[in-house]
Design brief:
single chain; 9 helices; binds S-adenosylmethionine; seven-stranded mixed β-sheet; alpha/beta; Rossmann fold
Amino acid sequence: MTKSEKNKPDHSIVADYNGYDYKKIFWEDGKRDYEDLADRMAIRKLLPEHMESFVDIAGGYGRLADEYLPRAEKSTIFDYSKTELADAKKKYGDKISTKSGDIYDLPFKDETFDGLMMIRATHHFKDMPKVVEELYRVLKPGGTAVIEVANKKTLPKMFRFWFKKSSVNPFDKNPSKIDGLTMYNYHPKYIEDLFKKQGFKIEKVLSVSNFRSAKLKKIFGTKTLGKMENVAQSALAPIRFAPSIYYKLKK
Ligand SMILES: C[S@@+](CC[C@H](N)C(=O)[O-])C[C@H]1O[C@@H](n2cnc3c(N)ncnc32)[C@H](O)[C@@H]1O
């Protein structure tokens, strides 16, 4: 490997969802009703009521489309996986446009959208500075971006580190790779500095999926956990408690 190749950012596709039944395997078989509800609660609190053009970046099969379709005159789902996009098209037909491509080179002109969101995707991206640059580029001035970030500084991750179950130091601000997986977690301080450096203004932060635990889900059930989650999203935001941190950003 030459020196210039070594210094090149890694933009490889680390998670190819083509042919993977994400909806059935991850959401339905994985019994993630609580996590789905937690995402929806956050999106309802953060997305503007009305947008002309909106894009769901790495939106998969459109799990969350019914949250933004009523708020946007024109909605697009962008994703790498053509099979995920085909599922979205099957369900929503003309109500939604789909576009495939790679996050590191979004196939949209500068300042195309007045709203965008990107949920449950950052763990697949090694080069977040480039991702943030691309999101900023396609947003109109004054536009809103709702971005969910996989948080490396959570309490369970701290315990795993202290008890030597994981080598990942949650207090280290640099991005980390999850042990044994090609997935990345981000420190809130790292990501917030990145947003600001790019020119985004952070308008609101929520702590989301605060009770993501098989035991808690079994004891309380989705309805009760949902009520607790609703309060915890704002209450625990100042300490960036949950595995998912949601940001409402303004360009
Ligand atoms: C965990 S899924 C989340 C889907 C959706 N946002 C949701 O919350 O249900 C991650 C998505 O990121 C997409 N993805 C992964 N790498 C990508 C890349 N380099 N460019 C565009 N999309 C990518 C995958 O195809 C997949 O649909």
